[in-house]
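Following up on my earlier message about iron/sulfur cluster. Here are the inputs again, as you asked, copied directly from the submission form:
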Amino acid sequence: MSVTPFAAPAQPQGCAVPSIERERGQRQVFCGLSGIVWLHRKIQDAFFLVVGSRTCAHLLQSAAGVMIFAEPRFATAILEDRDLAGMADCNQELDRVVAEVLERRPDIKMLFLVGSCPSEVIKLDLGKAAERLSRAHAGRVRVLDYSASGLETTFTQGEDACLHALVPHLPALPSMERSLLVVGTLPDIVEDQFKRLFNALEIEPVHFLPPRNAESLPPVGPGTSVLLAQPFLGETARALHKRGAALLHAPFPFGIEGTLAWLKAGAAAWGVAPERVEEVAAPAVARARLGLERQREHLAGKRISFLPDSQLEIPLARFLQRECGMELVEVATPFVDRQLMDAELALLAPETRLTEGQDLETQLDRLRAARPDLTVCGLGLANPLEAEGLRTKWSIELVFSPVHGFDQAGDLAELFVRPLLRNELLKV
Ligand code: SF4
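Thanks, got it. Here's what our run produced:
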């Protein structure tokens, strides 16, 4: 298997992959602020301060819900008209707000200044602000910045930008040492499952990015092998490569097939035979088969379309087609990063209709003509499509929920079953 530092993997001889149609036009996507919802749950001593507008504050609040019993670890520093008109010193205001947050929250060890469309439009330099605030609060908190604006991005790119901002701060892995680094936010329970499997394969040490707290930033260096747990982390992967890490090319760990292939890629880098992976994973695979069987009877033969939103579309389509027997009408995704996606493309049926980008009206016309049993799309399109009698699944739910690995394979399939069953109930 290929462990070349960030080169596209060689295609197996004669392996046909679907051709990709590219569309450009009006897009309907959510912005990267959504990533704060799962990132703040994962890094338990991090605070996310969005520098944005009231719209950003509303989006964040409705996406993350209002916490009543706990003080949230995210907030919005709202840019007022005076700031936008350049009449106030935004940096002074920002310093004051950060000092207030840190005084109230001694538990915070890492603070992210999160850029938005308004902060980008007025060209507020959050990088400089983060450096200044890091110096001012040295020894107390690390201040970093990233942009989650909705200008030309998709909602999962917020996580890529956040992890990318962490890479320069990762400690160096001592030379002559090696490690496996799993990159992408995973719920703790899933992380523990993967850790147990790698330990059983005698693959150690295994680190995770993002970490559970600011103190546990994983080391990186030429001895690091990177396994991506999410397909939308291209910039982070490239930054890790610049620090000497090698990317392992594998499908993503969704479903039995994806998880096995993903583990085997990690194992191969450690010289562990694929048969040993199958032996160690056998009990988990048997449980996953049982869980999937129940859901497969609802999904097999049903037709599904993906609209471009989360960048998870290709791996999920592969899982639904190969393990759940669904028929793929169209798989549209915002971007196809061939370096990360070739192992997935090789598993899709070559005749799959694969679209990169979006021209919203044309795409909706195709969807209305095809009328699939289920459409995976963003929140903004779900209700109008439901009103037209099309059943939908919110793509953002697939990022929030624990869906990676063997023990979650049945739950992942069930997320697609629910709207179909709801449809059956409505018919009664
Ligand atoms: S799209 Fe821009 S303005 Fe709207 S919520 Fe996201 S960052 Fe804020």
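One observation from looking it over: The domain at 179-277 is CATH 3.40.50.1980 (Rossmann fold). Hope that helps, and feel free to reply on this thread.
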